[in-house]
Amino acid sequence: xxxxxxxxxxxxxxxxxxxxxxxxxxxxxxxxxxxxxxxxxxxxxxxxxxxxxxxxxxxxxxxxxxxxxxxxxxxxxxxxxxxxxxxxxxxxxxxxxxxxxxxxxxxxxxxxxxxxxxxxxxxxxxxxxxxxxxxxxxxxxxxxxxxxxxxxxxxxxxxxxxxxxxxxxxxxxxxxxxxxxxxxxxxxxxxxxxxxxxxxxxxxxxxxxxxxxxxxxxxxxxxxxxxxxxxxxxxxxxxxxxxxxxxxxxxxxxxxxxxxxxxxxxxxxxxxxxxxxxxxxxxxxxxxxxxxxxxxxxxxxxxxxxxxxxxxxxxxxxxxxxxxxxxxxxxxxxxxxxxxxxxxxxxxxxxxxxxxxxxxxxxxxxxxxxxxxxxxxxxxxxxxxxxxxxxxxxxxxxxxxxxxxxxxxxxxxxxxxxxxxxxxxxxxxxxxxxxxxxxxxxxxxxxxxxxxxxxxxxxxxxxxxxxxxxxxxxxxxxxxxxxxxxxx
Length: 488
Description:
Elements: H1 19-47, E1 75-80, H2 96-99, E2 117-120, E3 127-130, E4 135-138, H3 142-145, E5 151-158, H4 164-173, H5 183-191, E6 201-204, E7 229-231, H6 247-268, H7 271-293, H8 301-307, H9 314-331, E8 336-339, H10 355-379, E9 386-391, E10 395-396, E11 399-401, E12 408-409, E13 413-418, E14 426-428, E15 430-431, E16 438-440, E17 443-444, H11 445-455, E18 465-467, E19 470-472
Parallel strand pairs: 1-8, 1-9, 5-14, 5-17, 6-7, 6-8
Antiparallel strand pairs: 2-11, 3-4, 5-13, 9-13, 10-12, 15-16, 18-19
Helix pairs in contact: 1-6, 1-7, 9-10
């Protein structure tokens, strides 16, 4: 008699199991082995005294990928300057602009976003030299000027796009169209995560999501678990991160979900389902780790003052918490952290008019917290292993838009790196005498990505993922490590 409860009349003979059916069933079982492994890592952390705020106990049993090159940086903090700061008003002084201020711009110009081009516009701010390196920094950044010897300033960056959305996709993913993985997702995919209780890629969102939206943080064609997780520096860092039920109720829920997931994974045998299961398990573990991570008020009074937790300006206070949270994330083994700008009275760094007011508002928000982040990482021994990158999607024109703004300029702008093996106290490349176009060692965003990966021990040409019939990579078929940017 057939004991299968689906055959109550006993008149049906069970179908023999074919080799294909057996392999399909075993394949689902392999997926559940990975699923069970996630529970095992959580238990390992608990058994070794891990409180969710450290990778200790988890790392001992987790084999991370071997790197192609010596690894200088274990983590990246990407300080995204939304909208495009003006290079000639920040880190690239151009005295010739003073000579031509208010006069017709003497160089041939390309079409701009709005084609409302006025006369040459000198910087409203003064530049001075700082540190042993004699780094030129404008009055917009008095605090960053104090850590100028840590900066590797690249004055000859270029982009292929002059519109925010496409330029943001290019900056974040190496492609000007949506759908490609973000650089944070590539780092998570290539190097793995050092803390099983936190995502490998986190976006600390201070009030502004880049033009282009969440696609800037997408996993694209990579497994979904590598997508950026959004955290906020105020209130609950992640929605619903605080458990609402008792531990017993949660255990019963997990057991039920595990049974449902097991059946569904068996039936689908899908990479997407496997990623979803891993994401759900990570979300559970984050309920224990995130509240401790986000408890910024537990920082010392001196640290909070350093970052500007009590600064007079509200946006400075917001960005101070963002930068402090970024430090806590890399301290706990998160691979890639992107920090977005707070919403100031000048919105983003996109000053098509009111250049002085807008740039001063944005600089006031980020200057003290960024300098504090670099100093704090250094004194904790983390700067050597953390690459800090300051960049935007493009720069701004040295001539006016209207009378008191600057339009988008992808032809030559400034980014900088600090720590993580970047050569501090150096300036690489140059723009022309007006700061309009890169004329010495011009680089593209692909080169920046290649250099970031190089410092993390990854050869950008060998970090690939098969999609659409070809081996895809962050730098596509482009990119070279920026000469002189890597320290000894």
